[in-house]
Amino acid sequence: MNTLVRSVVLISGAFIAVPAKAQAPSTVFLSCTLAQAKKIKQGFDIAPVPLDLAAKNRKLVGLGSYIVNAQGGCNDCHTNPPYAPGGDPFKGEPEQINVEGYLAGGQAFGPFISRNLTPCNDGEPEWTFAEFLQMLRTGVDLEDDEHPPGNTPLLQVMPWPVYGKMSTCDLRAVYEYLRAIPSRQCEESPH
Length: 191
Ligand code: HEC
Prior knowledge:
Layout: H1 3-16, H2 25-46, H3 58-72, H4 74-78, E1 108-109, E2 112-113, H5 129-138, H6 160-163, H7 168-180
Antiparallel strand pairs: 1-2
Helix pairs in contact: 1-2, 2-3, 3-7, 5-7
Bound molecules: heme C.
């Protein structure tokens, strides 16, 4: 660890015990930056699939992985089934995410079926970032025509009223992560 990094760590550590009110804004910002760096690292540690970082913003991909895999629970609904055989934590088994079907959709919630979030074969998601933002912020179903019969103009089941409250930066991180995961355009996918 170089001296600068060490003193930054020591300084930020020293402030942990100090009440938030007493912290100078710059120190809070420093702690936040360090916390963000930890999230990015953790994001890479917990990503269950290999990530393609070519032409991607690495920090955003790491943060996106943190949001998707440690906070958003996208896997619970968008992977069918979410866990590999013998890897279901709800059965007390050591967790093993279903890598083959990771975020490829296909789980039914009544008439609504979760959709494939993985990139197309050209390595890009089906939606532009502007479209993704619109879906997550307003719930509008931009692929309404393609998903009969349960379809409604607004996405159902999907917690967009919650996710839509994320900052644009965080949503961009989620989008960047979804660009980096393996494409799963399998035949039975709902796309
Ligand atoms: C509680 C289950 C659930 C969770 C958790 C969930 N989704 Fe969904 N999502 C759905 C369902 C179901 C649909 C399809 C809704 C419909 O058909 O009306 C959907 C649709 C979508 C769509 C529209 C895709 C398209 O091509 O039209 C996007 C984008 C999406 N989800 C992203 C996410 C992301 C990102 C996360 C995690 C941050 C997430 N979802 C978590 C259930 C969920």
